[in-house]
Amino acid sequence: MTFPLGNHAGVSQRHNIASVDLTTFAANVREARAAAGLTQEAVADASRIHVTEVSRIERGLRDPRISTVLRLAAALGVPASRLVDDIATQ
What are the CA-CA distances from residue 89 to residues 15, 41, 43, 71, 84 (Å)? Predict the structure, then answer.
């Protein structure tokens, strides 16, 4: 997937965006939640993320913003690096 970055002297530049393996991120979130003994509802409340969104993230259906990753990490009591550990890009 490519996205234009701008136009310099009439030449459009393109940047390749890597795909991220959301399955690993989802598993990391689920494992951190289980280790903390929290429900999805408790994580949702603590992170101010809707419980449906937490569920979608844990199933690998959402590619969250960095701000969401940081809020999840804080709610789970883990560093954000723990949630993105071992994620592969394609």
Answer: 15, 30, 27, 23, 11
